[in-house]
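> example.struct
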């Protein structure tokens, strides 16, 4: 059985993809980019992602780009899924994941999400090359 994912795995997997740079937001939050396009970022607390019981903003949200709206729906439509979205992200090809729930994923599941995020933001040439090398 594959081990459960950890937040550190997001950093390791993102940095393992080719041509990745890391920027840091004003609060030190990591923003992973390929070709100056973000594909994963650690979000600062925002009013749209909060605990409905306490109203406290989530401080551990990670945003992953997805290839299509159908991919997004596949990840967020199951209420048991750790992935979610908010109205702020309606029409945006991304999903959110709380770091506190990342252990609900296996590393191989997280790897697929990270790779898909990179692939949908990388240039067509880079994506095609990476896919050919990893068939």
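> example.seq
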């Amino acid at each position: 059985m594959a081990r459960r994912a950890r937040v550190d795995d997001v950093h390791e997997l993102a940095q393992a993809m080719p041509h990745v740079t890391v920027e840091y937001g004003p609060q030190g939050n990591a923003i992973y980019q390929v070709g100056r396009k973000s594909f994963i970022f650690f979000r600062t607390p925002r009013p749209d992602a909060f605990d409905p019981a306490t109203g406290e903003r989530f401080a551990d949200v990670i945003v992953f780009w997805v290839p299509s709206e159908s991919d997004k729906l596949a990840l967020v439509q199951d209420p048991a899924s750790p992935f979610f979205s908010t109205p702020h992200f309606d029409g945006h090809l991304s999903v959110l994941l709380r770091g506190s729930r990342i252990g609900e994923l296996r590393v191989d599941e997280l790897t697929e999400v990270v790779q898909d995020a990179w692939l949908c933001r990388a240039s067509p040439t880079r994506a095609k090359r990476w896919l050919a090398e990893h068939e």
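> remarks
Residues 9 and 57 are 24 Å apart (CA to CA).
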